[in-house]
Design brief:
By secondary structure, the protein is mostly helical. It contains 18 helices and 7 strands. About 55% of the residues lie in helices and about 5% in strands.
Length: about 375
């Protein structure tokens, strides 16, 4: 079990997969439970699974890599693996009883942090410029205070490095915000004001509202087509905004899709929902996304490009938005259904969407009847008092 590590899982897989006889198969934990279930039979009995285990004589020779485990309870589902390597950013003491645990350095050393800050500040391959910047930053006490304040967390150092801090006053102002103990919200298990560190970077954006809206998406890669729909703009315009956000290390963007760090998603959701009515704002944000999708395809849902996000998640977002008109339009659009089945290569996900929609209609009906009942009770009370 390897703790305090990021992006190591696929590097381990690459090494293990160098020989021709090694093969790999990835299943993302970000997939919905329904998606995982769809790959398995509905009912598995011990009698059914016995020949499978017998036939797979190489099971004991197979190396399983479980990447980025976030919850302690998930380890119990992995006990079938005879040989395995798991990575997690958290250390669970119970694992030391029956696992060989390697705890990697979680944070950057002062020298590593200064190297990273210099790299981000210079943005040039000139080694002389880079070394001069390393020397300048290393001699600045305010820079050292900032590194200490954010405990050398790589994400925080990357964000700070993109702020373009020049003067000692600017560095000290950043340090005061990061070191502030009365943070409005504590993120993850970090003792310093990570919330304030992220806020510094987000507030430096010219269009921070656009960045905040990205909190509407699931924690997966977000295609630029869906981002452009959310922002109701052309892909070329969305591209420019995403480049700016990428340059500030707020997300990772490769011209096809963007990815937000999980801590950044936590920050955005806590920041937005703390300033607004949680349910109302979430509903409004999802409505904005659905409106954007509709505008992009002129209400012809089956004509929207298959960007890898739209078809699996359209109903999910429409249900949160409680967008009855669009929900009815989509769920009675046989061209959309046909296209979704073709893209998914199974009817299963459409069945899931239909089930969720039916459950949604039942709950709305129950709430409506409940409101009617309360209204009748109030009328009876009023009539009785007369």
């Amino acid at each position: 079990d390897i703790c305090n590590v990021r992006k190591l899982g696929k590097r381990l897989e690459k090494e293990a997969n160098k020989t021709a006889e090694n093969k790999d198969n990835w299943m993302s934990s970000s997939s919905s439970n329904k998606q995982v279930k769809s790959t398995l039979p509905d009912d598995i009995t011990p009698k059914q699974i016995e020949p499978v285990n017998t036939a797979n004589s190489r099971l004991s020779e197979t190396l399983f890599i479980f990447d980025d485990i976030w919850k302690k309870d998930h380890y119990k589902y992995l006990s079938f693996a005879k040989k395995s390597i798991s990575t997690s950013r958290f250390k669970y003491l119970e694992n030391e009883l029956d696992h060989h645990c390697i705890r990697l350095q979680e944070n950057l050393t002062d020298d590593e942090a200064i190297e990273l800050l210099a790299l981000l500040a210079v943005n040039d391959n000139d080694q002389t410029l880079h070394q001069n910047q390393v020397k300048t930053l290393g001699q600045n006490r305010a820079v050292k205070n900032v590194i200490d304040s954010c405990q050398g967390l790589p994400l925080a150092i990357s964000l700070i490095g993109r702020l373009g801090l020049k003067t000692e006053k600017e560095w000290n102002q950043a340090k005061d915000i990061i070191a502030k103990k009365s943070a409005p919200t504590k993120l993850a298990h970090y003792d310093f004001n990570l919330y304030g560190t992220l806020e510094l970077s987000v507030d430096s954006l010219e269009n921070k509202r656009l960045f905040e809206q990205l909190a509407v998406f699931k924690r997966v890669s977000i295609p630029i087509q869906s981002v452009a729909s959310l922002w109701d703009c052309e892909k070329s315009e969305a591209h420019l905004h995403l480049i700016e956000m990428n340059n500030k290390s707020l997300l990772t963007y490769d011209e096809e899709k963007c990815v937000l760090h999980d801590l950044m998603v936590d920050y955005l959701q806590q920041r937005l929902y703390s300033h607004n009515s949680n349910q109302d704002y979430r509903k409004s944000l999802n409505k904005t996304l659905i409106d954007g999708y509709r505008n992009q395809c002129d209400g012809k849902w089956n004509t929207f490009p298959d960007d890898g996000y739209f078809y699996p998640n359209l109903i999910y977002h429409a249900l949160i938005a409680e967008n009855d008109e669009d929900l009815q339009s989509i769920m009675t659009d046989f061209d959309w259904m046909k296209h979704k089945i073709e893209i998914d290569r199974t009817i299963y996900y459409l069945e899931c969407d239909l089930t969720d929609y039916i459950d949604y209609l039942k709950k709305r009906k129950e709430r409506k009847e409940k409101r009617k009942g309360k209204k009748k009770e109030r009328n009876k009370i009023v009539q009785g008092s007369d």
